[in-house]
Fold D,D-heptose 1,7-bisphosphate phosphatase.
Amino acid sequence: MIAAHAVGRPLEAVFLDRDGTINVPAAAGDYVRSPDELVLLPGAAAAIRRLNRAGLRTVLVTNQRWLSMPGADRAAFVATQDRLVELLAAEGARLDAAYHCPHAHRSCLCRKPAPGMLWRAADELAIDLTRSVIVGDAVSDVQAGRAAGTGTILLGAGARSPLADAVRPDLPSAVDALIPHRAAQRRQHLEEPHACGRQERF
Ligand SMILES: [Mg+2]
Ligand SMILES: [Zn+2]
């Protein structure tokens, strides 16, 4: 189903959209502009924790066009990102890197659907894009992934896009599709050193 899996090569990184994927999105046309407005979606932190435990790198890629508008409060954006990291950490989840596009429409190569943030992450973090997937709730997330050569999962109840490799209702079920159950179980078991006993001398 996911491109990397189809050819039997293990997945290496998962690119994650922010608003509408990890946290509750702002009203249409608006943005999450302050830490108080950042509320995690149910199960999102646990889903990212599962990616972490499966050894996959997690990279946030988010469009924040409001930062290009006059008077935008950059400090509030930084505080909002910090809040996200904090809320995830409270549930044992982490992002390995976070990229954002602060630009206006059609003024850069990083605002999704353009692939610039994925290109930069691949370069800076030595990520193989053909062994990566992007998960997001907008067709522009899928388009960015296609342009960069990653697999793509579109989120949303009833969402559809001919470009997406898969459509799932939410991040937790996307992660179900990405992590083979046995591999996740194995990883989890090995993280609990006392789950089974090994006799030292016999
Ligand atoms: Mg989104
Ligand atoms: Zn940009």
Residues 74-89 form the longest helix (16 residues).
